[in-house]
Design a protein that fits this description.
The chain is of the alpha+beta class and 185 residues long. The protein is built from six helices and four strands; from the N terminus they run αααβαββααβ. A four-stranded antiparallel sheet has the order 1-4-3-2, with helices on both faces. The longest helix is centred in the N-terminal third of the chain and has 28 residues.
Length: 185
């Protein structure tokens, strides 16, 4: 009798734990993995460029290598992978569509309400697409080219690469933009 009662209590406890765990859509898991892969591929190259050639070389990595990474991830995965921002640096690739703009504004609202931007993500079906966005947060390394007090050399290089740059004036910890992924259903 005790064994049956113990098993009943154990099963009830397991069911309670399983009921509280969120069900994650497999498409979301795939999107998270791709977004994290993008970061894992780009961040070391930026740090290496900063250490080896300074901010001008890092700007070149963002201008030349980052688009190649998103294009490569898109080609191998079947997803469209890109970076977007309300203050875009690359006017041909980083301007958000209406859905992305709404999500970015929501990320800003949530951060203003005290939520940690490092945890901000959103996924949903929009029309005939599965959409996912993950906030990109300003880290110390970002401030060299996205901060408030940029050196004259950084400003000059930014003007060369990005004549329509709006992606400056950020502070540590702010939402700078997002990695956006979409896939047709």
């Amino acid at each position: 009798m005790r064994k049956i009662m113990f098993l009943t209590v154990l099963c009830a406890a397991c069911a309670a734990v399983l009921a509280t765990e969120p069900v994650v859509d497999p498409r979301e898991k795939e999107a998270v993995a791709l977004a994290n892969e993008f970061v894992a591929l780009l961040k070391p190259q930026l740090k290496q460029a900063l250490a080896g050639g300074g901010p001008a070389e890092a700007i070149g990595v963002c201008a030349d290598i980052a688009p190649g990474i998103t294009d490569s991830l898109s080609a191998k995965s079947g997803w469209t992978v890109k970076r977007v921002s309300l203050k875009s640096r690359n006017a041909t690739r980083a301007v958000p569509d209406n859905w992305e703009k709404t999500v970015l504004l929501e990320f800003d609202r949530r951060q203003a309400a005290g939520e940690n931007p490092a945890d901000m993500r959103l996924s949903e079906v929009v029309g005939r697409q599965y959409r996912y966005m993950q906030a990109q947060v300003v880290e110390p390394v970002c401030l060299v080219c996205h901060g408030q007090d940029l050196s004259p050399d950084v400003l000059k290089t930014l003007r060369e690469y990005y004549p329509d740059d709006w992606a400056t004036g950020y502070s540590l910890g702010e939402v700078r933009g997002a990695i956006s992924l979409s896939r047709n259903l």
